Amino acid sequence: MINSNKNKPNEALSKTGNKGCEQAMEWLLAHADELESGSSSQSSATPVTQNTEGASQTEDKSEASTADGAEAKSIKCEDCGKLFQTQVEIEFHAAKSGHSNFSESTEEKKPLTEEEKAEKLKKVEDMLKQKRREREEKEKLEALEREKNRIKAGKEMIEAKKRSFNELLQIRLTNGQALTQTFGIKEPLSAVRVFVELNRTDGDAPFTFMTTFPKKIFKPEDNDLPLDSLGLVPSAVLIVTKTIPV
């Protein structure tokens, strides 16, 4: 007779902390004999009244018989051909495979030997270990990606701060050559003059600065003003022009 105890899946899930079908199946396989013996004892201990005995026997005979009158010894999955002995096995197979076509069969499912049980348990354990390794590997990759993003964001923030406190000046000399240097936005224009005097290649004639966009000629009193107040941020092109003697 087919065991239709539907409490076993719930019990297995409860015993394994509701961690999934795989662990519940592992628990069921490990306690298969215990569950079956407990179910049989409970069934035999339940009294059947005289009024319902006939109906119960009729129902059992109906369920235990196939269309040609032979006794059903198992339930067969018509989708894959596997045989099952208990409702627990059927429900787990249906949940795991998505198969839904089952019928009674006269084929008898042989009980698992201790070696077969051990082999099946090992397969379940190997599958769980593989899934755990895959999950850990995925978590490592995700953590690595988060760290890369954190480092990238930190660098971008540092660069943004640098840009907010520094500016890049391109200085065109009178001979057509150019000097490039980064200055703090609060440095005075005189710091740029010193840099040009130390690095120029167009002689040592007196000079002044000017810009073309917008056009502006800087006066001696501008030398003490910070670059940001002179409109030379975040970048600018300064043109060196010879000072015309008055």
UniProtKB/TrEMBL annotation:
Q: From which domain of life does this come? A: Eukaryota
Q: Would you tell me the Gene Ontology cellular component terms?
A: cytoplasm; nucleus
Q: Which PANTHER family does UniProt cross-reference here?
A: UBX DOMAIN-CONTAINING PROTEIN 1
Q: Which GO terms describe its molecular function?
A: K48-linked polyubiquitin modification-dependent protein binding; zinc ion binding
Q: Which residues form the UBX domain?
A: 169-240
Q: Which parts of this chain are annotated as the region Disordered?
A: 24-72, 95-119
Write out the GO biological process terms: negative regulation of proteasomal ubiquitin-dependent protein catabolic process; negative regulation of protein K48-linked deubiquitination; negative regulation of protein ubiquitination
Name recorded for this polypeptide: UBX domain-containing protein 1-like
Provide the C2H2-type domain boundaries: 75-104
Q: Where is the composition biased (Polar residues)?
A: 45-57
Q: Which organism is it from?
A: Diaphorina citri (Asian citrus psyllid)
Among Pfam families, the record links this protein to: UBX (PF00789)
**Where found in the cell?**
Cytoplasm
Q: Where does the secretion signal sit in this chain?
A: none
Q: Does the keyword Zinc-finger apply?
A: yes
Keyword annotations for this protein, in alphabetical order, are: Cytoplasm, Metal-binding, Zinc, Zinc-finger
Q: Which SMART domains match?
A: UBX
Q: Where is the composition biased (Basic and acidic residues)?
A: 106-119
Q: Does the keyword Cytoplasm apply?
A: yes
